[in-house]
């Protein structure tokens, strides 16, 4: 046992239902393959009517605790990052903590930073563990995001959750470095009470996603004296299938490095769970001693980066709960047509 | 009327310039032109198609003259849809030619990218007959698509021949440091791009761009001869046509452009076959073909085959859009017509990044909307 801070358990959850981007496109009179070719998105996950950020978080966190085999009484904090917390006032975390049977002597706060919120939860929880304030802490990125009908975001806004337990015992991936880069950049936002977010079109690209992800990636590499070739794997925030490939290439990473963490083409943009799920999928296959870079991004805007190194504990630990590939296995999927999707997501105005 | 020379030129990069405002762009291009000419302008003509819509800013003459420290000058904003630049150039030329002013700054500027892409379609409708075209959903893309269909039906022009215009535009802009796009584009990519208005697809149309271009005009007589050859405006012609496409006599060409060209050729004492380099208004791929025919470079109906054969390429009979044109260099609306003039001046000076050898006579062609306004200028190298 040493005092290295790192991930001691992780879990993932993605809802079973899907809708194909070509079906959404055809609903709006756009040629079917425009989106799948242009944005490299085939289909996205759709939460059931009884699923929300809280339920998704419970699923993923259950697997994380199952893997870590930590005593529930020793979890000292629950932080959930999301842009679809069910309540504007009442943290998702209190419900999740209760559902997981954790102690009541616990610190809970919800996080919001667009798609970066899950990473923000991870950043804070790891800091509390490092500072000795808590023994173990749970950081979750979870979302059931919405895109306005007919808007570009409708093709990608999906649902998912990834949970990480941080601690100092039986660490499966040590946290070696972290870096945060933030600015006031109005690329995408949602006002209180509004159902759908708004965005600034092409402004969400180069001055938002690309500039912040690049700055955080370069910043953490400079700070830690590393370069692209030093990493076995890299995971970027995935608003679509294309952006992460482009930014990865520009930073000098290969497709092989990015491959395990690339989930967007099959499940869409899970927002606060996007890069966390990518990390989970990477931990599912990594070997001991693999160095992993994760760079999240959230509109508004900011990017938080982490460097992890896997340990010899990873292989035995990950067996204790389902892999991302098992959860998203094609045989689990159920496809919806656009009408079923709209009804399920509450997009149809009911009543008079 | 006295002869008018271009004493100074300026141009910003064209593209999605997130860090540069309308004012920044105006100042950058204008000050380059003023610096080069080393004279103080006495009037400022601002070419801008959509400041009120894109930027919530009108009264641009006053605003932009003030922004470069020349607030006491007479300054106006000139608008003729995407022909604003060429039309402002003509007004600046006329002011100097007629003795209204000795030195006139003409700067075209547009800042299009601060608003979402959907808005571009709406702004385009303001360049049509809003009551009967725009309001029905016919923006410029749709209207040019109708022209393309007509050209294909009347002359057998093929989709591939039209798409070749885009391939050529990108090939020309490869070396242009100011171009929005420096990448080559394959024919297959143009044919398979996202649909817009049949038969036009995403890569058939010029992009939304930010940018500015400027010329400082003055009398040829007495102009300081510097290191670079002087360039004279040898001809200027402008004409109009019924604005709504469905009221036109023809749907396969723009008579306004033919008439503007005829007036310019006559004034310059030249014909189309004398022109050695041209910058034309390729708002859409089909527009390049229409322009070649309207300007008399190829016979009516033959532009499809001509473009596919490379007649308008750098090695062709009439190198057209060496800058990459609207499609590849970019199309900040008010700046287009002035940027065309700037490129021709570079060509005649021998300083262009994609140089036509020994060019002495060049032409610029700028169209407003789907042919409601057209303006043509001819430039000649002096000594």
Short description:
The complex is a heterodimer of chains A (352) and B (383). Chain A is an alpha/beta fold and 352 residues long.
Write structural notes for this entry.
Chain A is an alpha/beta fold. Chain A has 2 domains: 6-172 and 323-344, Thiolase/Chalcone synthase (Peroxisomal Thiolase, Chain A, domain 1); 176-314, Thiolase/Chalcone synthase (Peroxisomal Thiolase, Chain A, domain 1, 3-Layer(aba) Sandwich), CATH 3.40.47. Helix content of chain A is 32%, strand content 24%. Chain A is built from 13 helices and 14 strands. In chain A, α3 packs across α4 (92-99). The N and C termini of chain A lie far apart (63 Å). Chain B is 36% helix and 19% strand. Chain B has 2 domains: 4-116 and 208-219, 3-Layer(aba) Sandwich (Peroxisomal Thiolase, Chain A, domain 1), CATH 3.40.47.10; 135-205 and 229-382, 3-Layer(aba) Sandwich (Peroxisomal Thiolase, Chain A, domain 1). Chain B contains 13 helices and 11 strands. In chain B, the strands form 2 sheets. In chain B, strands 3-2-4-7-1-8-11-10-9 form a 9-stranded mixed β-sheet, sandwiched between helices. A two-stranded antiparallel sheet of chain B has the order 5-6. Chain A binds chain B through residues 30-31, 34, 38, 199-203, 206-207, and chain B through 16, 18-19, 113, 115-118, 194-195.
**Secondary-structure element order of chain A, as H and E?**
EEHHEHEHEHEEEEEHEHHHHEEHHEH
The share of residues in extended strands of chain B comes to 15-25%
Structural class of chain A: alpha/beta
Q: Tally the structural domains of chain A.
A: 2
CATH topology of the largest domain in chain B: Peroxisomal Thiolase, Chain A, domain 1
Mean pLDDT value of chain B:
97
User: Helix tally of chain B?
Assistant: 13
Radius of gyration computed on alpha carbons of chain B: 19 Å
CA radius of gyration of chain A? 19 Å
Largest sheet of chain B: 9 strands, mixed
- Bin the helical content of chain A: 25-40%
């Amino acid at each position: 046992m040493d005092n290295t801070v790192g991930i001691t358990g992780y879990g993932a959850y993605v809802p079973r239902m899907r809708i194909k981007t070509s079906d959404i496109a055809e609903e709006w009179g756009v040629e079917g393959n425009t989106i799948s070719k242009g944005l490299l998105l085939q289909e996205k996950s759709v939460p059931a009517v009884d699923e929300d950020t809280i339920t998704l978080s419970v699923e993923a966190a259950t697997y994380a605790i199952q893997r870590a085999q930590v005593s529930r009484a020793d979890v000292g904090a629950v932080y959930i990052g999301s842009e679809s917390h069910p309540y504007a006032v009442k943290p998702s975390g209190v419900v999740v903590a209760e559902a997981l049977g954790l102690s009541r002597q616990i610190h809970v706060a919800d996080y919001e930073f667009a798609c970066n919120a899950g990473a923000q939860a991870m950043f804070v929880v790891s800091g509390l563990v490092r500072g000795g304030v808590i023994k173990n802490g749970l950081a979750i990125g979870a979302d059931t995001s919405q895109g306005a009908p007919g808007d570009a975001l409708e093709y990608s806004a999906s649902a998912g959750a990834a949970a990480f337990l941080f601690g100092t015992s039986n660490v499966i991936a040590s946290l070696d470095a972290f870096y945060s880069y933030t600015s006031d950049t109005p690329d995408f936002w949602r006002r209180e009470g509004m159902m759908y977010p708004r965005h600034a079109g092409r402004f969400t690209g180069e001055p938002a996603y690309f500039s912040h992800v690049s700055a955080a990636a370069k910043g953490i590499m400079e700070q830690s004296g590393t370069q692209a070739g030093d990493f076995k794997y890299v995971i970027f925030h995935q608003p679509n299938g294309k952006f992460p490939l482009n930014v990865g290439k520009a930073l000098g990473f290969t497709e092989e490095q990015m491959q395990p963490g690339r989930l967007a083409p099959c499940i869409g943009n899970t927002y606060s769970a996007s890069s966390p799920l990518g990390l989970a999928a990477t931990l599912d296959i990594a070997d001991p001693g693999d160095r992993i870079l994760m760079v999240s991004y959230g509109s508004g805007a900011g990017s938080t980066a982490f460097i992890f190194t896997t340990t010899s504990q990873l292989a035995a630990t990950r067996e204790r709960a389902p892999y991302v590939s098992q959860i998203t296995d094609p045989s689990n999927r159920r496809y919806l047509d656009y009408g079923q999707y709209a009804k399920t997501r509450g997009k149809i105005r009911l009543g008079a | 009327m006295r002869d008018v020379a271009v004493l100074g030129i300026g141009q910003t990069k064209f593209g999605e310039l997130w860090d540069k405002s309308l004012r920044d762009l105006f100042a950058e291009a204008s000050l380059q032109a003023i610096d080069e000419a080393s004279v103080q302008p006495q009037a400022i003509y601002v070419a801008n198609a959509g400041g009120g819509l894109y930027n919530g800013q009108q009264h641009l003459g006053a605003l932009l003259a003030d922004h470069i420290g020349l607030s006491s000058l007479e300054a106006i904003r000139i608008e003729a849809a995407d022909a604003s630049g060429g039309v402002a150039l003509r007004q600046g030329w006329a002011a100097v030619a007629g003795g209204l002013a000795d030195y006139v700054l003409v700067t075209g500027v547009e800042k299009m990218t601060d608003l979402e892409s959907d808005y571009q379609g709406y702004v385009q409708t303001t360049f049509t007959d809003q009551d009967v075209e725009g309001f029905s959903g016919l923006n410029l893309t749709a209207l040019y698509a109708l022209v393309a269909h007509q050209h294909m039906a009347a002359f057998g022009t093929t989709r591939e021949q039209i798409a070749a215009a885009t391939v050529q535009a990108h090939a020309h802009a490869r070396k242009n440091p100011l171009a929005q796009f420096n990448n080559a584009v394959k024919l297959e990519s143009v044919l398979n791009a996202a649909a817009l208005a049949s038969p036009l697809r995403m890569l058939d149309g010029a992009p939304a761009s930010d940018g500015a271009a400027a010329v400082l005009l003055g009398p040829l007589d007495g102009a300081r001869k510097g290191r670079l050859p002087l360039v004279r405006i040898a001809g200027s012609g402008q004409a109009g046509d019924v604005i709504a496409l469905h009221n036109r006599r023809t749907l396969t060409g723009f008579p306004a452009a033919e008439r503007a060209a005829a007036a310019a050729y006559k004034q310059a004492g030249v014909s189309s076959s004398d022109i050695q380099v041209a910058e034309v208004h390729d708002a859409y791929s089909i527009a390049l073909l229409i322009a070649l025919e309207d300007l008399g470079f190829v016979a009516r109906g033959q532009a499809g085959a001509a473009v596919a054969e490379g007649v308008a390429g750098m090695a062709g009979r009439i190198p057209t859009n060496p800058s990459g044109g609207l499609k590849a260099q970019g199309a900040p609306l008010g700046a287009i017509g002035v940027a065309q003039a700037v490129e021709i001046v570079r060509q005649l000076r021998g300083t262009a990044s994609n140089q036509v050898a020994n060019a002495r006579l060049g032409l610029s062609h700028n169209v407003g909307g789907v042919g409601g306004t057209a303006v043509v200028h001819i430039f000649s190298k002096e000594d």
